[in-house]
Amino acid sequence: MPAYTDHRDEHLRRLRRIEGQVRGLQRMVDEDVYCIDVLTQVSAATRALQSFALELLSEHMSGCVADAARAGTAEGEAKVQEATDAIARLVRS
Amino acid sequence: MPAYTDHRDEHLRRLRRIEGQVRGLQRMVDEDVYCIDVLTQVSAATRALQSFALELLSEHMSGCVADAARAGTAEGEAKVQEATDAIARLVRS
Amino acid sequence: MPAYTDHRDEHLRRLRRIEGQVRGLQRMVDEDVYCIDVLTQVSAATRALQSFALELLSEHMSGCVADAARAGTAEGEAKVQEATDAIARLVRS
Amino acid sequence: MPAYTDHRDEHLRRLRRIEGQVRGLQRMVDEDVYCIDVLTQVSAATRALQSFALELLSEHMSGCVADAARAGTAEGEAKVQEATDAIARLVRS
């Protein structure tokens, strides 16, 4: 079971809030709200998604480190590499 | 009327797709999908939001430059400053 | 002459400070400073580069808007497209 | 001794290359090179700094996971938290 399962309700609440932000953006575009104000909302939604990702990553790394402690080195290395790749995608997105 | 009104349908389609990605994230969390796969989807949604922002900004700048050409310098300067501030928020988000 | 020429000395001062930060990073690596502290300095240097880019872009857009006002629409459009492409590279870097 | 010590020469080479890029930027500003071309170089230097950071982080996490495996849980947790904070600074810079 993924490490984030304990926090599932909190994650779902966060994601529903982000979904609400994206629906808000649709309303803004539909009502011809001034472009710069739409962009401000896009930045807010982007930051919310990144915070969610960092939260998830933090939990994954706690779990990952714990698992790697119990498992052998090879599996631990593979998990670290996988996490590092995910971080690179976040940093570059 | 904002410069982006011409492309409103296209913008709304994009935003609905992003809303779908965020709902997909909820489903993934709900079904205990592996954390790294969730993170990959978060990166995809973040990039989609940024592409939308860049598209909007591009249209705004085309309109902004055109308006500044017709209006006087002071208004033009104010619009450039406003756009630059929005860009700074995007770069830092 | 580029729009940023007026601020050349200020830009050079900023860039020399960033060069100093990068040399500081070499010293840290050379002296086996703790990895997390090195990363904190990398983040500081990255932010300094982005601030420089945003400053340069802001000046370019002021000049760009002014030029586009004097020139015809086609040249103005090309300049806006060019600036937007540069912004996209910044947002994604 | 930090985990990155094995790769010190490679890190120093990378950082000297980045220092060269920043000095190149000074030359460009000094010679009034077109602003957009300067911005392209800033994006390249920023990406190079981020790649260096990701490399360093990857090594740190390999070391961190290995250390946490040998040490107790509390120290492991503290190291993961520290790494996550550094990642957050990278993602937001």
TrEMBL record, chains A, B, C, D:
<keyword id="KW-0804">Transcription</keyword>
<comment type="similarity">
    <text>Belongs to the CsoR family.</text>
</comment>
<protein>
    <submittedName>
        <fullName>DNA-binding FrmR family transcriptional regulator</fullName>
    </submittedName>
</protein>
<keyword id="KW-0238">DNA-binding</keyword>
<dbReference type="InterPro" id="IPR038390">
    <property type="entry name" value="Metal_Tscrpt_repr_sf"/>
</dbReference>
<dbReference type="GO" id="GO:0001217">
    <property type="term" value="F:DNA-binding transcription repressor activity"/>
</dbReference>
<keyword id="KW-0186">Copper</keyword>
<keyword id="KW-0963">Cytoplasm</keyword>
<dbReference type="GO" id="GO:0000976">
    <property type="term" value="F:transcription cis-regulatory region binding"/>
</dbReference>
<dbReference type="GO" id="GO:0046872">
    <property type="term" value="F:metal ion binding"/>
</dbReference>
<dbReference type="InterPro" id="IPR003735">
    <property type="entry name" value="Metal_Tscrpt_repr"/>
</dbReference>
<dbReference type="GO" id="GO:0005737">
    <property type="term" value="C:cytoplasm"/>
</dbReference>
<keyword id="KW-0479">Metal-binding</keyword>
<dbReference type="Pfam" id="PF02583">
    <property type="entry name" value="Trns_repr_metal"/>
</dbReference>
<dbReference type="GO" id="GO:0032993">
    <property type="term" value="C:protein-DNA complex"/>
</dbReference>
<keyword id="KW-0678">Repressor</keyword>
<keyword id="KW-0805">Transcription regulation</keyword>
